[in-house]
Write a structure and sequence with these properties.
- The chain has 54 residues and is mostly helical.
- Helices cover 74% and strands 0% of the residues.
- The longest helix has 40 residues.
Length: 54
């Protein structure tokens, strides 16, 4: 039973690190998605409109 104790402690210690990394990855992917949507809108527009970037 004590053979698995170190593994359990390691999993508990790694959980916050994995969570922070997954949130960072999600944020990077969301920014990349927003940029690709904006570029598609820019390239698809055939008229002379003013585009405001925030």
């Amino acid at each position: 039973m004590l053979d698995f104790a170190f593994g359990v402690v390691a999993m508990v210690a790694m959980t916050p690190l994995i969570t922070i990394q997954s949130l960072g990855f999600r944020s990077v992917m969301a920014v990349r998605h927003r940029r690709s949507v904006a570029m598609r809108r820019i390239l698809a527009s055939a008229d002379d409109q003013i585009i405001y970037f925030e």
